[in-house]
């Protein structure tokens, strides 16, 4: 089964595939980011692939390499029991990838986590907030140039209890710190 | 006259949705989670989940440690079943190294992993009863868990943070009287399982709170990345142990229980059945396993025995290099997955060919479950959140990394 999925992507999106390999039981394709949602949607909906589950989205920071980041999507099909890793490369200056939030429910939080930890933005994501860290956190801790012992500025105490998510977002937009998403 | 009295009251009835903060330290949200609920009367119409209160930077810490030093950190992911995390991580590194572990090691990993699963499921079932007022069921389940932990303590030396896995093997073999102790524990566990069934499964109060609440459909479960009991309760029989057997799961006979409705009751029943299946697996493993080595003899990974370390220069250098520089894992990346206590536990690891991991990403089932939990709450009553949040079995350490 090993090469079947790679061949599928190559057949339908030949121009987009930059690289592909099959190692240690993991099939991988590296694709252009522009048409990523389209490729993943095709993989999800085509009868031959049926990749109906998104196992994980993560990012790898290769500090001194250009392009610096690699966003990794791990897709799985429960019916066909096969797995494909789709990777896109992203440079530091143009750190964004189109979202696949509309394709899988799980993608919303996974993309938020990648933004939180690596600062890669997902274009079109409706609610790209931090998920594990707090909104006032400065920087993205899993980047290799973020020192493990780096300290964070003291967060100002809130004048009053924030009663809703909307209110909290308003508060954050009012005084964006360096790490938080600019409105 | 009467109408005039009631008129102002009618006008004053507050009918706007109400915002309710639940958590972060609500007694029913064991683990620290905050829900911002928009309520219409008793009904939840919108739920915003906020996690991360227990974030300790697992992935960042791992990048500063050697491959072996990561084991204690994995204990603290899902701290109710730390052995499963240990073995899941060990398996991932072994895949990248391309080494095979001895047969006995695989058997022991299967046994100890299932013991951990027993402790995970018993805790979840017991705590679920407790939150709905069934203190007795909780005490029985915790008695069962204590018995399991006694066994784990006997083998690993610790009850909770065991650090029992090693790359290419295990810390220790099973103790000689393990089978005997298991026979005793097994007998008591089956009694406890029966008692729990009697106490809960046909209990009117329990049924009313559990049946038809916190429902997920199979399509939604798959789309939101639900795995483990949460997905199986909807009828999708996806179990990594069955679909992609690792360790010795391919050689033992066990069933994968599935539910029909995807509600709390089905999740509870699936867990109850999995307790029986875990006991079955351990029985078969103990019957089939044979004596032998438990650690690989690959010199890149295995520490030489102490006699060699103290008496030969090669042994000493080898020991020194593995401890100080760490196991040298060839450059590359791999995604390895196992069945954890509450779903698919995956490790995506990247090595740059040195003794320290370049990157470790853990696909923690709890975090992914929390990403879709609003779908289970919305449309239900506020009171339904309590059983739903329990049967989802979110573990803070794993969710918040």
Automatic annotation (TrEMBL), chain A:
<dbReference type="GO" id="GO:0008137">
    <property type="term" value="F:NADH dehydrogenase (ubiquinone) activity"/>
</dbReference>
<comment type="similarity">
    <text>Belongs to the complex I 30 kDa subunit family.</text>
</comment>
<feature type="domain" description="NADH:ubiquinone oxidoreductase 30kDa subunit">
    <location>
        <begin position="29"/>
        <end position="149"/>
    </location>
</feature>
<dbReference type="InterPro" id="IPR001268">
    <property type="entry name" value="NADH_UbQ_OxRdtase_30kDa_su"/>
</dbReference>
<keyword id="KW-0813">Transport</keyword>
<keyword id="KW-0520">NAD</keyword>
<keyword id="KW-0472">Membrane</keyword>
<dbReference type="Pfam" id="PF00329">
    <property type="entry name" value="Complex1_30kDa"/>
</dbReference>
<dbReference type="GO" id="GO:0048038">
    <property type="term" value="F:quinone binding"/>
</dbReference>
<dbReference type="InterPro" id="IPR020396">
    <property type="entry name" value="NADH_UbQ_OxRdtase_CS"/>
</dbReference>
<dbReference type="GO" id="GO:0005886">
    <property type="term" value="C:plasma membrane"/>
</dbReference>
<protein>
    <recommendedName>
        <fullName>NADH-quinone oxidoreductase subunit C</fullName>
        <ecNumber>7.1.1.-</ecNumber>
    </recommendedName>
</protein>
<dbReference type="InterPro" id="IPR010218">
    <property type="entry name" value="NADH_DH_suC"/>
</dbReference>
<comment type="subunit">
    <text>NDH-1 is composed of 14 different subunits. Subunits NuoB, C, D, E, F, and G constitute the peripheral sector of the complex.</text>
</comment>
<keyword id="KW-0874">Quinone</keyword>
<keyword id="KW-1278">Translocase</keyword>
<dbReference type="InterPro" id="IPR037232">
    <property type="entry name" value="NADH_quin_OxRdtase_su_C/D-like"/>
</dbReference>
<keyword id="KW-0830">Ubiquinone</keyword>
<comment type="function">
    <text>NDH-1 shuttles electrons from NADH, via FMN and iron-sulfur (Fe-S) centers, to quinones in the respiratory chain. The immediate electron acceptor for the enzyme in this species is believed to be ubiquinone. Couples the redox reaction to proton translocation (for every two electrons transferred, four hydrogen ions are translocated across the cytoplasmic membrane), and thus conserves the redox energy in a proton gradient.</text>
</comment>
<keyword id="KW-1003">Cell membrane</keyword>
<dbReference type="GO" id="GO:0050136">
    <property type="term" value="F:NADH dehydrogenase (quinone) (non-electrogenic) activity"/>
</dbReference>
UniProtKB/TrEMBL annotation, chain B:
<dbReference type="InterPro" id="IPR022885">
    <property type="entry name" value="NDH1_su_D/H"/>
</dbReference>
<dbReference type="GO" id="GO:0048038">
    <property type="term" value="F:quinone binding"/>
</dbReference>
<dbReference type="Pfam" id="PF00346">
    <property type="entry name" value="Complex1_49kDa"/>
</dbReference>
<keyword id="KW-0830">Ubiquinone</keyword>
<dbReference type="GO" id="GO:0051287">
    <property type="term" value="F:NAD binding"/>
</dbReference>
<keyword id="KW-0813">Transport</keyword>
<dbReference type="GO" id="GO:0050136">
    <property type="term" value="F:NADH dehydrogenase (quinone) (non-electrogenic) activity"/>
</dbReference>
<keyword id="KW-0472">Membrane</keyword>
<dbReference type="InterPro" id="IPR029014">
    <property type="entry name" value="NiFe-Hase_large"/>
</dbReference>
<keyword id="KW-0520">NAD</keyword>
<comment type="function">
    <text>NDH-1 shuttles electrons from NADH, via FMN and iron-sulfur (Fe-S) centers, to quinones in the respiratory chain. The immediate electron acceptor for the enzyme in this species is believed to be ubiquinone. Couples the redox reaction to proton translocation (for every two electrons transferred, four hydrogen ions are translocated across the cytoplasmic membrane), and thus conserves the redox energy in a proton gradient.</text>
</comment>
<dbReference type="InterPro" id="IPR001135">
    <property type="entry name" value="NADH_Q_OxRdtase_suD"/>
</dbReference>
<protein>
    <recommendedName>
        <fullName>NADH-quinone oxidoreductase subunit D</fullName>
        <ecNumber>7.1.1.-</ecNumber>
    </recommendedName>
</protein>
<keyword id="KW-1003">Cell membrane</keyword>
<comment type="similarity">
    <text>Belongs to the complex I 49 kDa subunit family.</text>
</comment>
<comment type="subunit">
    <text>NDH-1 is composed of 14 different subunits. Subunits NuoB, C, D, E, F, and G constitute the peripheral sector of the complex.</text>
</comment>
<keyword id="KW-1278">Translocase</keyword>
<dbReference type="GO" id="GO:0005886">
    <property type="term" value="C:plasma membrane"/>
</dbReference>
<keyword id="KW-0560">Oxidoreductase</keyword>
<feature type="domain" description="NADH-quinone oxidoreductase subunit D">
    <location>
        <begin position="132"/>
        <end position="401"/>
    </location>
</feature>
<keyword id="KW-0874">Quinone</keyword>
């Amino acid at each position: 089964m090993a090469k079947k999925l790679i061949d599928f992507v190559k057949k339908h999106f030949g121009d987009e595939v930059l690289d592909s390999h099959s190692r240690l039981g993991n099939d991988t394709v590296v694709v252009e980011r522009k048409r990523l949602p389209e490729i993943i949607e095709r993989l999800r909906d085509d009868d031959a692939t049926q990749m109906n589950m998104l196992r994980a989205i993560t990012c790898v920071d290769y500090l001194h390499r250009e392009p610096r980041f690699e966003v990794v999507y791990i897709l799985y099909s429960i019916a066909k029991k096969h797995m494909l890793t789709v990777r896109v490369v992203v440079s530091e200056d143009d750190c964004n990838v189109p979202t696949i939030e509309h394709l899988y429910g799980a993608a919303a939080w996974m993309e938020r986590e990648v933004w939180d930890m690596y600062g890669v933005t997902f274009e079109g994501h409706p609610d790209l907030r931090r998920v594990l860290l707090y909104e006032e956190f400065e920087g993205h801790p899993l980047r290799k140039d973020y020192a493990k012992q780096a300290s964070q500025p003291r967060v100002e105490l809130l004048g009053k209890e924030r009663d809703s998510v909307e209110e909290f977002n308003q508060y954050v937009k009012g005084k964006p710190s360096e790490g938080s998403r600019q409105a | 006259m009467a109408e005039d009295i009631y008129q102002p009251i009618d006008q004053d009835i507050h009918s706007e949705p109400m915002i309710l903060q639940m958590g972060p330290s609500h007694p029913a949200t064991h683990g620290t989670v905050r829900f911002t609920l928009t309520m219409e009367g008793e009904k939840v119409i919108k739920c915003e989940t906020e996690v991360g209160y227990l974030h300790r930077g697992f992935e960042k810490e791992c990048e500063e440690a050697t491959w072996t030093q990561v084991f204690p950190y994995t204990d603290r992911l899902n701290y109710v079943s730390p052995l499963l995390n240990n073995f899941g991580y060990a398996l991932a590194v072994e895949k990248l190294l391309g080494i095979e572990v001895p047969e006995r090691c695989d058997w022991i990993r299967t046994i100890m992993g299932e013991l951990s699963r027993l402790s995970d499921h018993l805790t979840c079932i017991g705590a679920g009863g407790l939150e709905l007022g069934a203190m007795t069921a909780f005490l029985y389940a915790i008695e069962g868990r204590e018995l399991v932990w006694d066994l784990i303590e006997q083998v690993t030396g610790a009850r909770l943070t065991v650090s029992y896995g090693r790359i290419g093997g295990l810390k220790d073999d099973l103790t000689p009287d393990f089978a005997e102790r298991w026979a005793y524990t097994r007998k008591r566990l089956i009694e406890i399982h029966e008692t729990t069934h009697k106490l809960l499964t046909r209990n009117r109060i329990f049924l009313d709170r559990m049946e038809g609440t916190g429902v997920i459909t199979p399509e939604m479960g798959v789309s939101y990345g639900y795995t483990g009991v949460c997905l199986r309760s909807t009828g999708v029989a996806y179990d990594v142990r069955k679909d992609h057997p690792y360790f010795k799961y391919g050689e033992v006979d066990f069933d994968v229980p599935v539910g029909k409705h995807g509600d709390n009751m089905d999740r509870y029943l699936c867990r109850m059945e999995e307790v029986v299946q875990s006991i079955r697996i351990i029985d078969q493993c103990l019957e089939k396993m044979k004596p032998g080595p438990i650690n690989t003899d690959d010199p890149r990974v295995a520490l030489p025995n102490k006699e060699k370390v103290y008496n030969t220069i090669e042994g000493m250098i080898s020991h020194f290099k593995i401890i100080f520089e760490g196991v040298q894992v060839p450059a590359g990346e791999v995604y390895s997955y196992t069945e954890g206590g509450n779903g698919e536990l995956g490790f995506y690891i990247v090595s740059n060919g040195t003794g320290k991991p370049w990157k470790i990403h853990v696909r923690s089932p709890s975090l992914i479950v929390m990403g879709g939990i609003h779908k289970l709450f919305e449309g239900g009553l506020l009171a339904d959140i309590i059983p739903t949040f329990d049967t989802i079995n979110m573990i803070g350490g794993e969710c918040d990394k």
